[in-house]
Amino acid sequence: MDILPTIARFLNMQIPQGNQRELDGIALFGPVSLASPQAHHFQDKLDITWIPLEQEGEVKIYLSTTNKIKEGGKDEYQPLGTFPLKDKHAVVSVKEWPSSFYKLVLEGPHNTVNRWVIVK
User: Fold this and answer.
1) Residue 102: CB partners within 8 Å, gap ≥ 6?
2) Tell me, what DSSP letter sits at residue 57?
3) What pTM was estimated for this model as a whole?
4) Cα three-residue angle 87-90-92, rounded to 5 degrees
5) pLDDT tens digits, residue range 45-65?
């Protein structure tokens, strides 16, 4: 999972945002803001956690309830908020987006990570 982001960083290649949001790994060298996102659904909310690898900066969290990229399309993301990186945690309401599937993207100052949530 970490090979593509590592090679892209080594070659100083910019990965388009839509593709970057689909990558599961993080670069193995250089600055990394956060890792290991986790998310759990409860009572129309998502409980989201991450491991901060820096104490300064913010995490922007985005949500999609589709996986259109699977068929060559583009997923549309809704901003859920901005949170201090050092907090390691956010609880956000998804009442406006009822779904059995949530695709989350967490953007830090130096990297992006994602997590999928399937509601059973």
Assistant:
1) 39, 41, 46, 63, 64, 65, 94, 116, 117, 119
2) S
3) 0.89
4) 160
5) 999 999 999 999 999 999 999
